[in-house]
Structure formats: C-alpha cells, structure tokens
Amino acid sequence: MSRSDTIQKIEKNKIIVITRGIYGEELLRLSEALYEGGIRAFEITYDPADPNTLDTIKKNVEALDAKFQGKLLLGVGTVLNREQVRNAKEAGAKFIVSPNFSRAVVEETLEQELVSMPGAMTPTEICEADEAGADFIKLFPAGTLGLKYCKDIYAPLHHVKYIATVGVTEETFRQYLEIGFAGAGISSMLVDKKLRAEGNYAELTERARRFTAIAEAFS
C-alpha cells in the first residue's frame, strides 16, 4: 500500500482507534469486535517506560497484520525517535503518530515511506510540522483544549489535515468533522476497560457502529 493510499483510507474512514497497553489475545479480540462495527484503522502505542516496548509493539502489530491481511490499517503511536519509526515499519505499520512534533521523526517517517502524524497544539508547532512534511496534524490534546480552541486554530490554518485526539465522544466527533477536521483518534469510548473486563465486546461493536455512521455522514 502506497503512502497516498494510506492517506486516502484515513481521510475516508476518519476514525483511528488508539490502544494503549492492550496486547495479545485481548488486542485481537478487541480488534475483531471493532472491525465488526466498521472500524478500519488501529494505532498501537509504544510505552516509553517499558524497556521492551520495541519488541512488544512489533509482535502485536505483526499479529494484527497476519490476522487481517491488510484489511485493517495499522499504525504505531507515541513514536519519539527514529529507531521506533524503523521498528514500526518492519512490523508492518503504515502510519506513524507522535504526541509531539519532532523533525527527526517526521523525516524518518517520510524516508520509510510511511504516513506522518505528529502531535501539535500551538500555531507555531502546527506550521513547523506542516513545513516538515507531515501528512496530518494530531491536534493534541483536543478534548482538553476545547471545541472553541479547535475552531479558532482551524480558521486561519485550515490548509492542514487535523486529527483530533483525547476525550472524543460521539457528540464531539461530529463537531470536529463539522469544523472541517479530517478525523479523530478515539480511545476510551471504543476500548472501554470496564466493558472489556466484563467481556461485553458486543457493546464496543455497537459503539463502533455509531461512530462509523457519523463518519459516513461526512464522507
């Protein structure tokens, strides 16, 4: 899959599920439930506090890739350095997400022919990331900053493609898309720890369907 294909898929589907600390069979079960609900992109995040995070993430991305055979777009998040980019590429990831803007990470991502999605909050960070060649800007933390901030940022800087993250609900997801955002990274609503502990994956599937329906209304 080319970079342009990945970009088009992200723009079309508008939803990236963010998983943090979910591995092995639990990750596979979650991915099955959300895929059934229409989710087509997953971000599996590094844990900077885990010395084995490179191996852990690589194994889990490879497992998902083997299971879905390209039907689920896979990316790696919390990418902070060049080595992590290369590790993600080897595992089969197609896009790279960071909580911050690092020119080195963006450069390595593009060199590896992956899609770049650095995090940014201020106008300066957004412009610097865009000038470095980022394909999308992860506006972080959008939920904390609030909808008015998102609107105010978008008004003068609407030439970039924004992905909102943190605290995205069905209501705010629709609002971000109405502003003109390309999509959102969704975590708690679609990876709900309590529902997973209860084995209630059917509810997660239903939530995925509702989010997907919102995305389809803006396609």
Task: Calculate Rg over CA atoms.
Answer: 16 Å
State the total count of DSSP E strands.
9
Task: Round the mean pLDDT to the nearest integer and report it.
Answer: 97
| H and E string | HEHEHEHEHEEHEHHEHEHHH
Tell me the distance between the termini. Answer: 21 Å
Task: Tell me what the CATH architecture is.
Answer: Alpha-Beta Barrel
Number of helices: 12
Backbone shape: globular
- Helix percentage range: 40-55%
Strand content: 15-25%
Task: Tell me the count of domains.
Answer: 1
Briefly note the CATH topology name. TIM Barrel
Protein structure class: alpha/beta
CATH homologous superfamily (4th level) name: Aldolase class I
Question: Strand count, sense and closure of the main sheet?
Answer: 9 strands, parallel
* Adjacency order of strands in the biggest sheet: 5-4-3-2-1-9-8-7-6
What features would you describe in this structure?
By secondary structure, the protein is α/β, with parallel strands linked by helices. It has one domain (3-213): Aldolase class I (TIM Barrel), CATH 3.20.20. It is 54% helix and 16% strand. The protein has 12 helices and 9 strands. The chain has helices at residues 3-13, 24-36, 53-68, 82-91, 103-111, 123-132, 142-145, 147-154, 170-179, 188-191, 193-198, 201-217, and strands at 15-19, 41-45, 73-77, 95-97, 115-117, 119-120, 137-139, 162-165, 183-186. It has a 9-stranded parallel β-sheet with strand order 5-4-3-2-1-9-8-7-6, sandwiched between helices. The longest helix is centred in the C-terminal third of the chain and has 17 residues, at 201-217. The radius of gyration is 16 Å and the shape is globular. The mean pLDDT is 97.
